[in-house]
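Open question from group meeting: does this chain pack into something compact, or does most of it stay loose? Before anyone orders reagents, we agreed to write out a predicted structure and look at it together. Recording both the input and the output here so the notebook holds the full record.
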Amino acid sequence: MNRVRARIIGVVLALGAIAMLLPIVILFLSSFKTKAAVFVISLAPETFTLGSLAEAFTPDLLRALLNSLIVSTVVTVVAMFIHALAGYALARFDFPLKRHAFVVILGSLMIPLTTILVPLYIVVRQLGLTNNMAGLILPLLFNAYGIFLFRQFYLDFPKELEEAAELDGCGRFGTFVRVVLPLSRPVIVPLTVAFFLGTWNNYLWPLVVNQDKAFETVQVYLANLISGYNRDC
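Structure tokens returned:
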């Protein structure tokens, strides 16, 4: 009975996976079609051509992909380390207004980006960070959700491991880097994926803070490409 149930669940999951992947497969195969054949309903193109891909992968697109890769990677790596430090401090250290600081951090989760977009842009412009990588990266480094997850993880982290490292001569920072951080993979891995994808898919902030094509991210580039194509049509 359990085998039959497992097989039924497996078949259902396989059908669901096929249903989710089929549009992606069709889109991928359509990239090898000619412009006239794109709107013809068929799974595989009658004649394969690389003309559409050669036309799409322009130097501008490659530059936008590189910019998005740089921004997403830097934001993910730096933010992960900063958030881990902040979460560890909130979980382990006692300092004045600690509880109030944590409440303020949690409260920032309820403030959407659109609410602070204008004042944030004014601050970035006054600092001279518009139209460069720093303006794209720095405002995205703070994320209250990451700090919250790290804090909750470190509250249950065994203190005995830190005490053993300190007995071996590690300082507080050395203990954090050599012991605590490597053992934080259960929270680092999902946050890394979420931070990278969130930064990669970010459209609004790169659109507002950057007007230079040299620092254009891929989401802004694709939006401009689609709007330009619609105007041509």
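Observations to bring back to the group:
The mean pLDDT is 86.
The two ends are 59 Å apart (CA to CA).
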